[in-house]
Write a structure and sequence with these properties.
Among the domains are: 55-89 and 121-282, Beta Barrel (Butyryl-CoA Dehydrogenase, subunit A, domain 2); 464-590. Strands 3, 4, 5, 6, 7, 10 and 11 form a seven-stranded mixed sheet that branches. A hairpin with a 5-residue loop joins strand 4 (180-183) and strand 5. The radius of gyration is 24 Å and the shape is globular. Helix 10 (344-379) packs across helix 17. It is 58% helix and 11% strand. It has 606 residues and is an alpha+beta fold.
């Protein structure tokens, strides 16, 4: 298993040099304590925890997995102790209000923490990660009583949280939810039903687990219009805030999975369990999107995490493994063969991984500033501000989740390829990264669902193309400023063309969809991937711009190598990865009949 080393130099480059986070935090109502010294101390301490505590448990946790017996889940050896250290460090409440025991720092800092933790050990990170979504949903939609009851123990990390959406008969189509919520005289509800695929649904890390559950009242309308949202704890809170009586939430099994085996995925049965409605009646699905959007951005982080970890493992191996001689002549004449890092095809794989990890990190850190503004809208009770930033971030969410998870899986596969046959062997840990990464393109909405959300909902239905126009305007302004830059003009020209093309493609799809509704579905995957490649090109250009400026200022030798590497990676991305967008552009405009004309009976296998 690769020994994880937190990429603090790259993180600081994005925070301090590309996106000016110090200036950004000064504009936030909760950013006063996020001064550069504090932020740096948090990053350093989190890196230590991830490198020394979480990373060593990654391979062993995968090999041992979770244990299930008598409706109880025991996590792998070392997880409980690691979680206790996590709680003692105050990490769960890093970005949550001080009134509930949190540190009150901006949301983005929690995202940076999650990136490091997730790269070191994704399975472990899922347990507190699911709690964060529950906390955010309760914070925004819960009553004062609900918040005062559940937020302190969740913020401390004594209690965990989940989201319970999926049922045996429905996944994405939540209009089919059958879980019942029977009203009680005291204002509570009796929740009855079965939920499946519940990550962190049962475990031994916390004394209680708070489930956020979709269910419908007996008189609720059919479909998604009749779903409400409830808080259903595993154990009812006692009057003094401690754990009270068991609430009839039973784990009947956990799944045997391809990856993230140290994370328990539970089947939960609610048998007349007491629950409390949060948000408006029959508006549960809308409220749940608070949870889901949090989870989707977190899943985008998973794409970056797996790309980073696989890259670190592949890079170390490529420097040590020797095979054949370089075609351009011996590079290590005193060795039996040259290290494989000298072979261009191996470099192609390594640079692809690096481009995905560092380009994806830039995309997420950019979006994290939008998330900070959105959360500030909530904290300031400014609904207009919240909705503006929520809508702005909403355009990026499916791109981040869909594109970055697909690319993270590609990077993980490239890591195995660099190792050759050794990558297929469990002891090296590279195949585990592939298995762990595979789920990222599936949960919180498959790539196809993200693509439909992006093109059908965010671009065509909600904004009529304005979301694309707004972001491409940012790209175009940057490109215009750099047209005369001696080093950046080539990148600027290609970005300007992409910005124009993106708008043209969007308009053409809007026109085609008027006559052919299936166009939205047949084009959506290609539209999402095109959007991802073009967006990442912009963020690589941003990094190259800063690198050129820093080199011109005359930094030290070690720093110069970092900036030169950034420029080389930008060149690689534009030359070798951005051209992929052309294929997606051509495919998205093809008639939907290519996919729909074939009858179902034609899918033969005999």
């Amino acid at each position: 298993m690769p020994n994880y080393k937190a990429p603090l130099r790259d993180m600081r480059f994005l925070l301090n040099e590309v996106f000016d986070y110090p200036g950004h935090y000064k504009k936030l109502s909760n950013g006063g304590d996020a001064d550069p010294e504090t932020v740096d101390a948090i990053l350093e301490e989190c890196a230590r925890f991830c490198e020394e505590v979480l990373s060593p448990l990654n391979l062993s946790g995968d090999q041992e997995g979770c244990h299930f017996e008598d409706s109880k889940v025991t996590t792998p050896k070392g997880f409980k102790e690691a979680y206790n250290q996590f709680v003692e460090g105050g990490w769960q409440g890093l970005s949550h209000p001080t009134e509930y025991g949190g540190q009150g720092l901006p949301m983005s800092l929690g995202l940076f923490k999650s990136e490091m933790m997730g790269t070191a050990n994704w399975a472990f990170t899922m347990y507190p990660g699911l709690s964060l979504g529950a906390m955010n949903t309760i914070m925004q939609h819960g009553s004062e009583e609900v918040k005062n009851t559940y937020m302190p123990p969740l913020t401390e990390g004594r209690w965990g949280g989940t989201m319970c959406l999926t049922e045996p008969q429905c996944g994405t189509d939540l209009g089919q939810v059958k879980t019942k919520a029977e009203p009680q005289p005291d204002g509570s509800y009796k929740i009855t039903g079965t939920k499946i695929f519940i990550s962190a649904g049962e475990h031994d890390l916390t004394e209680n687990i708070v489930h956020v559950v979709l269910a419908r009242k007996p008189d609720a309308p059919e479909g998604t219009r009749g779903i409400s949202l409830f808080v259903v704890p595993k154990f009812l809170p006692a009057a003094d805030g401690s754990v009270g009586e068991f609430n009839n939430v039973v784990c009947s099994s956990i799944e045997h999975k391809m990856g993230i085996k140290a994370s328990a995925t539970a089947v939960l049965n609610f048998d007349g369990s007491t629950g409390y409605m949060i948000a408006e009646e029959n508006k549960g699905l809308e409220a749940m999107f608070t949870f889901m959007n949090t989870a989707r951005v977190g899943t985008a982080v998973q794409g970056v995490a797996h790309a980073e970890l696989s890259y670190q493992g592949a890079l170390a191996y490529a420097k040590e493994r020797r095979s054949m001689r370089s075609l351009s002549g011996k590079k290590e004449p005193d060795k039996v063969a040259d290290a494989i890092i000298y072979h261009p095809d191996v470099r192609r794989m390594l640079m692809t991984q690096k481009a995905i990890a560092e380009g994806g990190r830039a995309m997420i850190y950019f979006a994290a500033q939008y998330a900070d503004h959105m959360v500030n809208g909530i904290l300031e009770n400014d609904q207009e501000k919240y909705e503006y930033w929520d809508d702005t971030l909403g355009f990026f969410t499916p791109i981040l989740k869909g594109f970055l998870t697909e690319m993270g899986l590609e990077a993980a596969n490239q890591g195995v390829q660099v190792f050759g046959g050794h990558g297929y062997i469990s002891e090296h840990g590279m195949e585990q990264i592939v298995r762990d990464a595979r789920i990222s393109t599936l949960y919180e909405g498959t790539t196809g669902i993200q693509a439909l959300d992006l093109l059908g909902r965010k671009v065509l239905l909600m904004t009529r193309g304005k979301a694309v126009r707004d972001f491409t305007a940012i790209m175009a302004r940057f490109a215009l400023k750099k047209m005369t830059h001696p080093k950046m003009s080539g990148y600027a020209t290609r970005l300007a063309r992409c910005a124009t093309e993106w708008n043209v493609l969007t308009t053409r799809l809007m026109l085609k969809a008027r006559k052919d509704r299936d166009m939205v579905s047949s084009a959506s995957h290609h539209f999402l991937m095109y959007s991802g490649y073009v967006s990442m090109a912009y963020f690589w250009a941003l990094q190259a711009e800063v690198a050129y400026e820093k080199l011109a200022s005359g930094k030290g030798a070690e720093t110069r190598e970092f900036y030169k590497a950034k420029i080389a990676m930008c060149r690689f991305y534009f030359d070798h990865m951005l051209p992929r967008a052309r294929g997606h552009a051509a495919s998205m405009l093809k008639p939907s009949g290519t996919l729909t004309r074939l009858s179902n009976d034609s899918f033969i296998f005999e």
